[in-house]
Every structure is written in C-alpha cells, then in structure tokens.
Amino acid sequence: MSDIRYDWKHERGDWVVEIAKDTDGHLNLYITNVKSNNMYEIDGDQHGEELHYRITTTEIEEAYRNERI
Q1: What percent of the chain has pLDDT over 70?
Q2: Interval 26-52: pLDDT, tens
Q3: Residue 35 and which of 5, 13, 57, 61 are 20 to 30 A apart at CA?
Q4: How many CB atoms lie within 10 A of CB 62?
Q5: What is the Cα–Cα distance from 25 to 13, expressed in whole angstroms?
C-alpha cells in the first residue's frame, strides 16, 4: 500500500471531498456525506482530459422523489 499525503480537504454542505496524492503519483479522491452512508454514482463520463461523476445518496434521492409527488 502506498503512503498517502492529504493535500486538500473541502466541505460543501453535507459533502466532504478530500484529495490526496500517494507516493506512487496516483490521485486519490475521498468523498463522504455526513448525513449518509449510502452513496452511489448516478452517472459519469470521461471526456479526454476530464472525468465527471455525479454522486448522490439514498436520502437525497428519496427527498427528491417525495417533492415530486
């Protein structure tokens, strides 16, 4: 296992994103939600130089569905 050095941590609402670079030069992203342990990817794409992922939680999706009823 590589040694990991945390370079950056950002909190936005209920979301926490940590970015780290390990000693092998790999980028590591750690995404957590303080209100849920049930995160999953909605969709994601790779466009050459960019990766894009949408991440949600069970609670967010349930609240969205309840709003639309």
Answers
A1: 90
A2: 899 999 999 999 999 999 888 888 889
A3: 5
A4: 11
A5: 30
Looking at every residue in the chain, the average pLDDT score rounds to 89
What is the spatial distance between Cα 21 and Cα 6, in angstroms, rounded to a whole number?
7
Residue type, 56: T
- Alpha carbon of residue 29 to chain centroid: 7
With beta carbons less than 8 A apart as the criterion, state whether 8 and 18 touch: yes
Residue 4: strand pairing partners: 22
pLDDT at position 69, please?
65
- CA 15/CA 53 separation, integer angstroms: 14
CB 15 within 8 A of CB 30: no
Q: Take residue 52 and report the two structure tokens written for it.
A: 């894009």
